[in-house]
Amino acid sequence: MQLIPVILCGGAGSRLWPVSRALHPKPFIRLADGQSLLQKAFLRGAELPNVKTVLTVTNRDFFFKTEDEFREINATNIATSFILEPYGRNTAAAIAAAALQIAKTHGPDTLVLVLAADHLIADQEAFQKAVLASIELAATGKLVTFGIQPNAPETGYGYIEADGNNVLRFIEKPSREKAQEYLASGRYLWNSGMFCFSANSMLQEMERHCPEILSETKRCIERSRLAEGKDFTQLELDSNTFSSVPELSIDYAVMEKSSEVAVVPCDIGWSDIGSWTALGDLDEPDAHGNRTQGETLLHSSRNCTIHSNDRLVAAVGVEDLIIVDTPDALLVTEKSCSQDVKHIYAELKTKGHITHQLHRTVHRPWGTYTVLEEGSDFKIKRIVVKPGARLSLQMHYHRSEHWVVVSGTAKVVNEDSEIIVNTNESTYIKAGRKHRLENPGLLDLVMIEVQSGAYVGEDDIVRFEDNYGRA
């Protein structure tokens, strides 16, 4: 039987703010080895025996960023497929869409391995053994979940009471006392949120236990746009009909109701990296228990976690602190309060503060831009355009733009004229003029953009033509 890994890539990662943002969530966080959690999830699935394609379900706003992440590490050029959601409707909708699409394109008996993009698994060999065990069960029609052998009375995870491969019951996140009781009994496993099943088995159980989710997802797919190419498939779910799909987790919708559920107990070095404490614990501590990334200077400080990639962070006489420094936001918290960072994120979101949503460096389909400085009537950006990429043909009502090429070559459309701007040259785009920027070269185009005008917000843009479906 063919096995297709399905990566679920979404969520906000609010407890890992300020590195995690709404448009740069937890799966895209880079670890000390330079790889993101999403890249590790891709390799985890792609390196399984006989896997020929990997399907990713993600928000359409993350598509180009996800493509870039995979391109960077997909050395074997394994085929990639995507299901793009206009917004999240929880895991039942995502899994329904994946199962329907896989059953249609690869056959109903195809096995599906659901992986979360924001988990970490340290023992790949043990993981592969667990997958092989899950395949045997899934081939008999079982919906298989992976149960993690607990090593602590963790209150942040759901639990599974099990007898061998038999699931006795699912349990919500327990109190500390209950978690200690579960750990001591040896009968309970952490619910990892990873699954293995045949597409047909999952669809049958969805028809039995959550028929509305299945029927509405089918209706949505029928009205959705499918693009196909060599070793590539992209299904963009229709926004209007997707809103009718009930929002429910796969655990509530199917797994807790079905009599066809099995579990594979495993010890694979699993973590969902649910807080700065968990993320910091991945780094080796120094002699005083401090874990640091970036340039730091510590004096008389113990058991601190410090992350900074842009500037020096110094700490004197402090203990048990988490300090996370980014160009536009600084987090300081006691380790014991690391789970409460989500409340800061929620308040920023309520206030509409930009730091809940974006970093100063923003990824776009054509490359990136970084806001270097801004005021009420000006903004300075560093723009990087990938080789062969171009921005939309666009116009701004309220701002003019001065472009200085730092490296590479720019092709610039300015109203009816088209010019080439080389390194150390510049050009000027007056407000109200249609214009377009393109990189015709083989190397990145790097330029400085100075915007000036009465309003320099990102929404002052009218697109006339666009390669990425945004016009």
UniProtKB/TrEMBL annotation:
GO molecular function terms attached to this record: GTP binding; isomerase activity; mannose-1-phosphate guanylyltransferase (GTP) activity
Catalyzed chemical reaction(s): alpha-D-mannose 1-phosphate + GTP + H(+) = GDP-alpha-D-mannose + diphosphate
Coiled-coil zones: none
Limits of the Nucleotidyl transferase domain: 5-282
Keyword line: GTP-binding, Isomerase, Nucleotide-binding, Nucleotidyltransferase, Transferase
NCBIfam families xrefs: GMP_PMI
Name of the protein this chain belongs to: mannose-1-phosphate guanylyltransferase
Organism expressing this protein natively: Methylogaea oryzae
